[in-house]
């Protein structure tokens, strides 16, 4: 039985970027037409009914965000599509840009109309350079067909989109760091307030949304929020794109309804574990997410069910590790990633990652002491509480959950404890 859905992904493999006519035949740009015809109040109402929450990881209600944004008054405003998909194990946004670029552009145009912006940017991570010309081609064809540019669909709405390339920094997934890099500065997060919704790109109000969020906006305004809300659960409405990877037989990007269990996702969709081994742990939401031991795999994939157990959806990544994987080796790779990606702006993150990397190296070599294990927990908590931005605040999440759920394995690397 097919457990996946084709709501957000309805247009996958139905057209090439040169074939904008096929996107239109599929009902493409109907969401934009409905938005321009029925107005901003209609858009906000539909987003509220759809229950859409931002899919970049923060899960903030999109209707509430957009309603607040449109009430910010300024002579110039901007909208952004954040396609700096740098979270390891996450690749769903890439699939949307590859297989349905016009839906993302349509969602960004609706965002621009609602926010009161005439110019938008799609910020694509440097590693997705192969997509730049494809997106530029889509923009050009959308302009030639009257869906972008001047006087869109004869409504008087002007809106243009430009492609901007990131330079490979993980921290630029954070909105203010992304904008700093667009302005030609080092990609480091800004002090808040003001938030970018008040003073963002070039000091002007800027509304940023994730790729999947914008694709869902176009979907909801095409099919109607009531129809979209038929999927999912009461509190986690609709469908979600996930990046399933690790030791599963069929890794890939899938669209699922909220409410499936993690076991169903891994075995019914992912085909089970390679070599039919047992599961040891999952990591949800990318490398900044927690480690989840096997005992939780019957948890439903919803915001509320995962939060009740101390986990989260985050970026939509589900990484599966089998019984042969070492938790310490896994933590070493996580630690090295964040050590490499820390922008160095604040001491808790910069120095915390350096010390954590050293201590994990000792644990991996079997030379750590009980004091080292206590210090690594202390450093992790300081990083979480005192770091300047989300990178440092979440960099120790995997470590802290490993201490909570895999303490015997961590202690097994310490001679003093093994001797007891």
UniProtKB/TrEMBL annotation:
<dbReference type="InterPro" id="IPR019575">
    <property type="entry name" value="Nuop51_4Fe4S-bd"/>
</dbReference>
<dbReference type="InterPro" id="IPR011538">
    <property type="entry name" value="Nuo51_FMN-bd"/>
</dbReference>
<keyword id="KW-0411">Iron-sulfur</keyword>
<keyword id="KW-0408">Iron</keyword>
<dbReference type="Pfam" id="PF01512">
    <property type="entry name" value="Complex1_51K"/>
</dbReference>
<protein>
    <submittedName>
        <fullName>NADH-quinone oxidoreductase subunit F</fullName>
    </submittedName>
</protein>
<dbReference type="InterPro" id="IPR037207">
    <property type="entry name" value="Nuop51_4Fe4S-bd_sf"/>
</dbReference>
<dbReference type="InterPro" id="IPR001949">
    <property type="entry name" value="NADH-UbQ_OxRdtase_51kDa_CS"/>
</dbReference>
<dbReference type="InterPro" id="IPR019554">
    <property type="entry name" value="Soluble_ligand-bd"/>
</dbReference>
<dbReference type="Pfam" id="PF10531">
    <property type="entry name" value="SLBB"/>
</dbReference>
<keyword id="KW-0004">4Fe-4S</keyword>
<dbReference type="InterPro" id="IPR037225">
    <property type="entry name" value="Nuo51_FMN-bd_sf"/>
</dbReference>
<comment type="similarity">
    <text>Belongs to the complex I 51 kDa subunit family.</text>
</comment>
<dbReference type="Pfam" id="PF10589">
    <property type="entry name" value="NADH_4Fe-4S"/>
</dbReference>
<keyword id="KW-0479">Metal-binding</keyword>
<feature type="domain" description="NADH-ubiquinone oxidoreductase 51kDa subunit iron-sulphur binding">
    <location>
        <begin position="328"/>
        <end position="373"/>
    </location>
</feature>
